[in-house]
Amino acid sequence: MAFKVGDLVGDYEVIGTLGAGGIGQVYQVRHAISQRIEAMKVLLSVQTGEEVAERFLREIRVLASLDHPNIAALHNAFRHSDQMIMIMEFVEGVTLRAKLSSGSILMSQSLDYMRQVLSGLSFAHSKGIVHRDIKPSNIMVTRGERIKLLDFGLAFQGLGSDITRTGLILGSLHYMSPEQVMGERVDHRSDIYSVGVTLYQLLTGRAPIDGSSEFAIASGHLKETPPDPATINPNISARLSAIVMKSMAKSPNDRFQTADQFLEELGSVNMDETMTLLPTPAQSRETSGHAPRKPDAAPAPPPAPARSTKTLSGATVLSSVTRELAHYIGPIARVVVNRAAKQACTLDELYSLVSAEVSTDSERKAFMATRQKYSLES
Fold this sequence. Notes:
This protein is α+β, with helices and mostly antiparallel strands. It has helices spanning 50-64, 96-102, 107-126, 161-164, 178-181, 188-204, 214-223, 229-232, 238-247, 259-267, 315-329, 333-341, 347-355, 361-369; strands at 8-9, 12-20, 24-31, 37-43, 74-80, 83-89, 93-95, 129-130, 139-142, 147-149, 156-157. A hairpin with a 2-residue loop joins strand 5 (74-80) and strand 6. Helix 6 (188-204) packs antiparallel against helix 9 (238-247).
């Protein structure tokens, strides 16, 4: 059930719609007693699916443990009919993604934004929480230039193997660390990589890793070394370039080991306050989150209805296809198959989608021939 302006949800009156995300809707609301304006995030139905409901509950519990000026605060959570409701701080401003799309940003601003992001992450990491989805659309910039981190829906509290869930691939591909792309265990250093990618984009106007397909982007995170930022923007010092490149090291052991280390290095960099960057083109493939905020511009059209993938939900089928595909494209096959399974309704469709990543006609034909081995009932 969607709400409309004027509806009462518990003690909250709906006064506007802020946006929609993958698992629910976000509204602007006013508390009936305090009259405080807040953001109401709604999981549209607890019947949406166990994994989605679990993610929503996890976000509630993670945010309940975080009280920091650079993290959007949770005010309340409750159930309303068959819906779960999260009441959050209303953050008035624009996303960093919108600022990137609108033109050049002062270099001093870029560094200040990332220092604030790292400050918020340092606090979260001290609580054992890894965000796992740091990207420009999950970073809000208020009118007072205060940064607010949003969308802890992928975060995990605790760093044990039972919590990090090896093999689960979640996040936004342009900003994912190599270990996250591979579905391996991640820790706080994965967030450091994502901050480095975001800073690189702020300083150069482009993503450090890009490609014509998800496979190309995922493979780039694993194998490609991005150009030094100073070769793209000559206003960047060699020292700042080195800091950015270290944050994006392929191995977690070669990155800054804590957000505080990264923050300390950025804090020692001085920049001319009037120095602007290169024009910053919009990042076309990075998907926006469902954060509590005012729309950055004209509202995007609603996402297309999700296609059913029930026939492809069996782990045995997906692991079999992954195993076959890995003969031709290597371990990245796991990423390709998992993402394609979200779009395909049948095994034939899945094979068709993933076969596009096989480089030669002969190998593609050989891979397609393995289809007959498997049935959805296996």
